[in-house]
């Protein structure tokens, strides 16, 4: 296709530059969501009554379309990358809190008792015993959050060129060049697949005790989270 | 002005309750897009999921297809299909269906595949035909999971159908997109609230269907 990588100059970025911006806008929110979700999930497991209301609030937040979030946030954060990243962090939080809470809760009681008997305090037990055992569930959550985040950044194009690769789609419409839209869709999809593969590799590195075959992978705890979808 | 004031202002304005741009007709349009996309996605995902789950074959192919579909950005697909096909309902249905097929397909496959093999073997031993095993043994047991796949697909369609307004169709996204260009936050917040409400209604409906359709013996597990 002619002009596939011929990016209009008003985007002020090369193709590689757009990829960099896209990854930053997509992955920073996931990291922020993870940082927030870890203590929240700990609280939800410590105080069981907290879990249903937290789940309820997050379900409602997840149902709000990203574009509406962006537009409302413009009032506070302007037409900046931050406006795109805050809702994406919230969506990540929504996926990660149940993933971590359920994963941590599925750690067997004997394991916890053994850790306590060995003199682990609650914090150290959480960090060194519960989190590593819950790693597959947490990474399953991260996979959903990452794929969703990478896909949603594009919507930022609607609030004034804050959509990284999504800006290419706006440009494709403006200049009637479908190949730019094809470029954006394909590049975004490849980024999502690569990030997903990186997370799978990370899970394998973190959990060397788990079987590696594909069939086993399907039944790993928390993997059913993947059946939750990714984008909106 | 906080968000609640916007919501209150939006819903108390009587102009928002009538005509082609009124809440009832936009709501109906949104429901119509959602049902259509869900029906098409279910017509693709359910048979394939049931068949592959029953035979236990093709699981890797399903994982590959689902992962690929999940990686495609909805907004990008929408713009691309509009550029290639032109305006209309079809280019909006493409991203919505692509979005909804993976959760339906993967959960249906997993649900049928992980059914306890003991009753399945018993049914086969009693001479039940394969179709009977699938529809009278496996599907009833797998129904809660199958419904959960349909439910998450439906909620995602509801929330994503907002982008239909970006390519000149109606639906509740009309308020969000129009509000964005008119700098009318009241409309944006009102539209977002309506979408969230519709998503919650969808969740409640699926809860009701589950209560009604799932056999008590399965539910008690």
UniProtKB/TrEMBL annotation, chain A:
<comment type="similarity">
    <text>Belongs to the binding-protein-dependent transport system permease family.</text>
</comment>
<dbReference type="InterPro" id="IPR035906">
    <property type="entry name" value="MetI-like_sf"/>
</dbReference>
<dbReference type="InterPro" id="IPR000515">
    <property type="entry name" value="MetI-like"/>
</dbReference>
<keyword id="KW-1133">Transmembrane helix</keyword>
<keyword id="KW-1003">Cell membrane</keyword>
<feature type="transmembrane region" description="Helical">
    <location>
        <begin position="26"/>
        <end position="43"/>
    </location>
</feature>
<feature type="transmembrane region" description="Helical">
    <location>
        <begin position="55"/>
        <end position="76"/>
    </location>
</feature>
<feature type="region of interest" description="Disordered">
    <location>
        <begin position="211"/>
        <end position="232"/>
    </location>
</feature>
<dbReference type="Pfam" id="PF00528">
    <property type="entry name" value="BPD_transp_1"/>
</dbReference>
<feature type="transmembrane region" description="Helical">
    <location>
        <begin position="82"/>
        <end position="101"/>
    </location>
</feature>
<keyword id="KW-0472">Membrane</keyword>
<feature type="transmembrane region" description="Helical">
    <location>
        <begin position="180"/>
        <end position="202"/>
    </location>
</feature>
<feature type="transmembrane region" description="Helical">
    <location>
        <begin position="133"/>
        <end position="160"/>
    </location>
</feature>
<keyword id="KW-0813">Transport</keyword>
<keyword id="KW-0812">Transmembrane</keyword>
<feature type="domain" description="ABC transmembrane type-1">
    <location>
        <begin position="19"/>
        <end position="203"/>
    </location>
</feature>
<protein>
    <submittedName>
        <fullName>ABC transporter permease</fullName>
    </submittedName>
</protein>
TrEMBL record, chain B:
<dbReference type="InterPro" id="IPR051204">
    <property type="entry name" value="ABC_transp_perm/SBD"/>
</dbReference>
<keyword id="KW-0472">Membrane</keyword>
<dbReference type="InterPro" id="IPR035906">
    <property type="entry name" value="MetI-like_sf"/>
</dbReference>
<dbReference type="InterPro" id="IPR000515">
    <property type="entry name" value="MetI-like"/>
</dbReference>
<keyword id="KW-1133">Transmembrane helix</keyword>
<comment type="similarity">
    <text>Belongs to the binding-protein-dependent transport system permease family.</text>
</comment>
<feature type="domain" description="ABC transmembrane type-1">
    <location>
        <begin position="27"/>
        <end position="206"/>
    </location>
</feature>
<feature type="transmembrane region" description="Helical">
    <location>
        <begin position="188"/>
        <end position="209"/>
    </location>
</feature>
<protein>
    <submittedName>
        <fullName>ABC transporter permease</fullName>
    </submittedName>
</protein>
<keyword id="KW-0812">Transmembrane</keyword>
<feature type="transmembrane region" description="Helical">
    <location>
        <begin position="75"/>
        <end position="101"/>
    </location>
</feature>
<keyword id="KW-0813">Transport</keyword>
<feature type="transmembrane region" description="Helical">
    <location>
        <begin position="153"/>
        <end position="176"/>
    </location>
</feature>
<feature type="transmembrane region" description="Helical">
    <location>
        <begin position="33"/>
        <end position="54"/>
    </location>
</feature>
<dbReference type="Pfam" id="PF00528">
    <property type="entry name" value="BPD_transp_1"/>
</dbReference>
């Amino acid at each position: 296709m002619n002009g596939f990588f011929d990016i209009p100059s008003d985007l002020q970025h090369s193709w590689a530059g757009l990829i960099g911006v896209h990854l930053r806008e997509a992955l920073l929110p996931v990291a922020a969501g993870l940082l927030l979700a870890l203590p929240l999930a700990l609280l939800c497991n410590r105080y069981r009554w907290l879990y249903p209301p937290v789940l309820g609030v997050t379900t409602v937040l997840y149902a709000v379309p990203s574009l509406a979030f962006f537009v409302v946030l413009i009032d506070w954060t302007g037409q900046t990358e931050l406006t795109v990243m805050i809702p994406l962090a919230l969506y990540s939080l929504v996926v990660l809190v149940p993933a971590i809470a359920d994963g941590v809760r599925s750690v067997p009681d004997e394991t916890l008792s053994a850790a306590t008997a060995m003199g682990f305090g609650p914090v150290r037990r959480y960090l060194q015993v519960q989190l590593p055992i819950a790693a597959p569930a947490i990474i399953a959550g991260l996979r959903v959050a990452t794929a969703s985040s990478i896909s949603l950044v594009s919507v930022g194009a609607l609030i004034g060129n804050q959509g990284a690769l999504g800006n290419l789609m706006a440009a494709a419409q403006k200049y009637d060049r479908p190949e730019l839209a094809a470029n954006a869709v394909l590049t975004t999809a490849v980024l999502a697949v690569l990030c997903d593969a990186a997370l799978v590799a990370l899970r394998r590195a973190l959990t060397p005790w788990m079987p590696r075959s594909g069939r086993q992978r399907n039944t790993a705890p928390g993997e059913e989270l993947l059946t939750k979808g990714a984008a909106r | 002005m906080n968000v609640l004031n916007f919501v209150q202002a939006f819903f108390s304005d009587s102009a928002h309750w009538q005509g082609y741009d009124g809440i009832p007709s936009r709501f109906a349009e949104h429901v119509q897009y959602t049902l259509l996309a869900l029906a098409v996605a279910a017509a693709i995902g359910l048979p394939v999921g049931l068949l592959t789950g029953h035979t236990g074959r093709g699981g890797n192919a399903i994982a590959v297809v689902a992962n690929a579909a999940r990686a495609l950005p909805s907004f990008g697909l929408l713009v691309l299909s509009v550029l290639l096909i032109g305006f209309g309902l079809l280019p909006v249905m493409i991203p919505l269906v692509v979005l909804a097929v993976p959760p339906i397909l993967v959960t249906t496959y997993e649900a049928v595949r992980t059914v306890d093999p003991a009753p399945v073997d018993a049914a086969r031993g009693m001479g039940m035909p394969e179709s009977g095993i699938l529809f009278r043994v496996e599907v009833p047991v797998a129904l809660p999971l199958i419904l959960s796949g349909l439910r998450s697909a439906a909620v995602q369609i509801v929330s994503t159908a907002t982008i239909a307004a970006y390519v000149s169709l109606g639906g509740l996204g009309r308020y969000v997109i129009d509000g964005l260009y008119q700098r009318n936050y009241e409309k944006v917040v009102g539209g977002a609230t309506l979408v969230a409400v519709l998503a919650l209604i969808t969740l409640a409906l699926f809860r009701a269907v589950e209560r009604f359709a799932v056999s008590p013996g399965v539910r008690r597990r």
